[in-house]
């Protein structure tokens, strides 16, 4: 790693130096960019390939810089019984990565003047019209500061005073979207997919495709299929707004570019979406900021990300805005007996790799 970075510094220095009477005009910035891209591809291939090998990772991992693919690997089976290989068309359950779609839909309703994030949820949902829940706002549901855990129970803390991750809170947001739009949440999501250009995404309730990666518990040598997938994602235990969306590597790449490129939300709305309005201590990824259905690094590099997990389907979607880089990790098997910490070790390692690479590139850019 050190040797590669040293070489890159040397190349930067080489192409930054002025030569007297050059025989031809050379676009040294283009050469530098191509050198950096080659460096990124080589480093990512070496380090992420080692993650696949170390953990016998069954799934897909890809890294894109804007529209350029820097890394992509698909490994293992989407269907263990019939030995169907995972490929570029494989559709995965993405768990809580779904929450950013729900948040975007809420903000789109706000842009149309149908609600405000400062509104109380009780304005739109009768189930919030009681003394326990009457002061919960949409903003607090979006950033998990409502105090709500499981709907129907007592609040864990006074709304707005702390952070507690609530799937039921996001499912309530889905109900609000349906109430103010006059359309089901699923219909709203499909319209959002179309707006973003995502052609292979769906929800657990309405998916009719043939490329779904069945979810499994256990190991690649002893895999037990999770029943009733993907239909169960729409049930009360999960819920579509909280964790019921299905997508592909390519569609999530398209989504990242569309969302953070300003094609979904207006500039000021996007700022609200990504603004740190709460702080979360994640059991696996540590301390982080939380916006609206999205997490962010507290230090460098700047990034927006969210992990997802429903039985057998761990996922991670990362976007680095300074370089317009997406890192997407999707899988369809988890050994729950070893715990989520073990399940997400490949995801944590890949994030460390791409965080470090992002920081290195930004440091180089700052020097030149």
From TrEMBL:
Taxonomic superkingdom: Bacteria
Leader sequence segment: none
Segments forming domain Beta-lactamase-related: 59-338
Sorted UniProt keywords: Hydrolase
Any GO molecular function: hydrolase activity
InterPro entries: AmpC-like, Beta-lactam-related, Beta-lactam/transpept-like
Protein name: Serine hydrolase
């Amino acid at each position: 790693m050190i040797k590669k970075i040293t070489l890159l510094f040397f190349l930067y220095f080489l192409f930054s130096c002025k030569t007297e009477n050059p025989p031809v005009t050379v676009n040294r910035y283009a050469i530098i960019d191509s050198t950096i891209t080659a460096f990124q591809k080589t480093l990512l291939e070496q380090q992420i390939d080692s993650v696949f090998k170390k953990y016998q990772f069954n799934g897909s991992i890809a890294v894109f810089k804007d529209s350029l693919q820097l890394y992509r690997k698909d490994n293992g089976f989407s269907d263990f019984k019939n030995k169907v290989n995972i490929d570029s068309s494989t559709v995965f359950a993405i768990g809580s990565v779904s929450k950013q779609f729900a948040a975007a839909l809420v903000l789109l309703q706000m842009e149309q003047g149908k609600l405000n994030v400062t509104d109380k949820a009780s304005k739109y949902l009768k189930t919030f019209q009681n003394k326990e829940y009457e002061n919960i706002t949409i903003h607090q549901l979006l950033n998990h500061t409502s105090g709500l855990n499981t709907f129907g129970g007592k609040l864990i803390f006074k709304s707005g005073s702390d952070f507690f991750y609530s799937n039921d809170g996001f499912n309530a947001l889905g109900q609000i979207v349906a109430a103010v739009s006059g359309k089901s949440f699923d219909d709203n999501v499909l319209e959002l997919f179309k707006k973003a250009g995502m052609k292979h995404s769906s929800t657990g309730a309405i998916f009719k495709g043939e490329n779904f990666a069945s979810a499994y518990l256990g190991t690649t040598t002893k895999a037990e299929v999770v029943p009733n997938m993907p239909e169960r994602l729409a049930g009360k235990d999960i819920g579509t707004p909280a964790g019921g969306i299905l997508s592909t590597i390519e569609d999530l790449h398209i989504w990242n570019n569309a969302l953070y490129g300003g094609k979904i939300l207006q500039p000021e709305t996007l700022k609200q979406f990504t603004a740190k309005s709460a702080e979360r201590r994640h059991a696996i990824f540590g301390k982080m900021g939380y916006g609206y259905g999205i997490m962010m690094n507290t230090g460098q590099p700047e990034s927006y990300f969210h992990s997802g997990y429903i039985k057998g389907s761990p996922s991670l979607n990362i976007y680095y805005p300074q370089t317009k880089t997406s890192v997407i990790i999707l899988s369809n098997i988890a050994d729950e007996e070893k715990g989520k910490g073990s399940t997400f070790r490949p995801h944590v390692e890949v994030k460390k790799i791409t965080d470090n690479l992002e920081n290195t590139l930004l440091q180089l850019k700052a020097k030149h």
